[in-house]
Design goal:
This protein is an alpha/beta fold and 203 residues long. The chain has a single domain (4-196), classed as 3-Layer(aba) Sandwich (Rossmann fold). Helix content is 52%, strand content 14%. The protein is built from 8 helices and 5 strands. It has helices at residues 16-29, 44-53, 63-85, 96-103, 109-115, 132-142, 152-168, 181-196, and strands spanning 4-10, 34-38, 89-93, 124-129, 172-176. The chain has a 5-stranded parallel beta sheet, sandwiched between helices. It is globular.
Length: 203
């Protein structure tokens, strides 16, 4: 089987990591070779971004989208492409849609798209959509402090950007991320089956 590249993206609190892990586990149980990964990467550039987000490093705001894009190139070349070349199904928790959506708070969307032109185009982008209120409720249960972006008015703008991205990219699908985890996973499997033609994903 030719390798497939699946991205699961959306707001913080939308359930991306949970659904990525479930899909990875399900595919492996069906006998498929998978590679589960995430962004920000654990490479050198990813380390710089993590240090910034943890408050251990100061960077000019103009550098951030460029660093995210550079980290994505490094991650793609060193991890994602080699796995695809081995015929694996790559599942990535976040990819370029996150950079477009979150950085659109500060920068022009067309410029952001231009710096992402070297990113690999996934076979399928699943954007999990939840209300801002639901996303913040989930995050509040898990964390004491919210990150830079986790304020209601900013979250709404980011959610709107994700919805716009889902409409603009033909390989992107907006999936309802609300409800029980298993209910959401049924929707995710349905989209994977319909869009990628993987036959074993049942109802």
């Amino acid at each position: 089987m030719k390798g497939k590249f699946i991205v699961i993206d959306g707001l913080d609190g939308a359930g991306k990591s949970t659904q990525a892990r479930l899909l990875d586990k399900y595919l492996r149980e069906k006998g498929y070779k998978t590679f589960l990964t995430s962004e920000i990467s654990h490479g050198v550039i990813g380390g710089i971004l993590r240090a910034y987000l943890d408050g251990r490093l100061n960077l000019p705001k103009e550098a951030l989208p460029l660093l995210f894009a550079a980290d994505r190139i490094d991650h793609t070349e060193t991890k994602i492409k080699p796995a695809l070349e081995r015929g694996m199904i790559v599942i990535c928790d976040r990819y370029f849609p996150s950079n477009l959506a979150y950085q659109s708070l500060l920068f022009d969307m067309e410029w952001l798209k231009s710096i992402e032109r070297f990113a690999l185009n996934p076979d399928l982008i699943i954007i999990l959509d939840v209300s801002v209120e639901e996303a913040l409720r989930r995050l509040q249960k898990e964390r004491i402090f919210f990150s830079l972006y986790e304020k209601k008015e900013k979250f709404q703008k980011v959610r709107d950007a994700f919805i716009k991205i889902a409409k603009e990219y033909p390989n992107a699908v907006l999936v309802n991320g609300e409800g029980e985890i298993d209910e959401v996973f049924v929707r995710v499997k349905k989209v994977v089956k319909e869009k990628l033609g993987i036959p074993f994903l049942g109802k």
